[in-house]
Amino acid sequence: MNKPETDSKDRSFGALIYLFPLVYSLPFGIALLTQFPWLYQFFSPLVAIYGLTNSLPFASLIIFFGLWFAVVRNDNVSYFLRFNGMQAILINILQVLFSLIMGILIPAFGVQSLITETLNNTIFMGTVVGCFYCIFRSIQGQYGELPVISEAASSQIR
């Protein structure tokens, strides 16, 4: 995308926005994080944030709507931040859809079956890779282009 140059503040906030879907990917990675303690240590700050947001009622919903109204639908915010905010929201919506699907599959196959653990790990790793890619690109001041999600995000904020 050829959009205006971004300043360091927009780059920082653009990267921080991706903590929202990254934190809420942790339930999918429980099996992976317990099998690899060094990986759990790497994600321990996110685990603390997840614990804090789960202790507050409706925290994820408040963050979702706060991000939606304060960033994505606010024309005073730069296009760069609005794009990153919308993309983070779309990643989170995909996580919600995947959790609904897993809610159907887990009773059918069991919590520790090969199918459910593989799907959970794939969802977790896909979210982590996508978010870290977008964080890295945001720090560079560039747009993290994720297939389909970026197009949907761009069409929502024009």
Automatic annotation (TrEMBL):
Its main location: membrane. Keywords: Membrane, Transmembrane, Transmembrane helix. It comes from the Bacteria. It is found in: Membrane. The chain crosses the membrane at residues 12-36, 48-71, 83-106, 118-136. The keyword Ribonucleoprotein does not apply. One of its GO terms (cellular component) is membrane. PANTHER family: PROTEIN TIC 20-II, CHLOROPLASTIC. Belongs to the Tic20 family. This is Tic20 family protein Ycf60.
